[in-house]
Design a protein that fits this description.
By secondary structure, the protein is mainly α. 54% of the residues lie in helices and 11% in strands. It has a three-stranded antiparallel β-sheet with strand order 1-4-5, with no helix packed on it. The chain has a two-stranded antiparallel ribbon with strand order 2-3.
């Protein structure tokens, strides 16, 4: 017995040297529709592929949703990076202005305490950024 013809086709492109005429309009084409098991094929021009009455692509909704989510996450990551950089610039400016305004009588212990506070602030900011990215 003969097997039933599948109605699922994959678009393949061939080299210009092996272009053959479209099976419908006989214009030279490099587009070939082929079954997944590669038992049947036919040459088709790009104009007929765009015709809504001729064929329609199979759309994978899960893939589209995953791509959209990935793009959204990338935008959010960039936004968080910019916010973090702005915070660090402001913190650096405020630290520079504090250093200029303070007396030169500052001891080494005071400098160490200030740097510990800065490190804690930086760690806290990084932790907040990571929490935003994960959620």
């Amino acid at each position: 017995m003969t097997s039933l013809l599948q109605n699922t086709w994959h678009l393949r492109r061939v080299a210009e040297a092996t272009a053959k005429p479209c099976d419908i309009c006989y214009k030279p084409t490099t587009s070939v529709l082929i079954t997944p098991d590669q038992k049947d094929h036919f040459y088709i021009c790009p104009g007929h592929l765009k015709d809504r009455g001729f064929c329609s692509p199979i759309v994978d909704e899960a893939e589209i949703a995953a791509k959209k989510k990935k793009e959204e996450l990338e935008r959010e990551i960039e936004l968080i990076k910019k916010e973090h950089e702005e915070k660090m610039k402001k913190r650096k400016k405020s630290n520079d202005s504090k250093k200029k305004g303070q007396d030169s009588d500052k001891t080494a212990n005071d400098v160490k305490e200030g740097s510990k506070e800065d490190e804690e602030d930086i760690d806290k900011a990084e932790k907040e950024k990571n929490d935003k990215v994960r959620s």
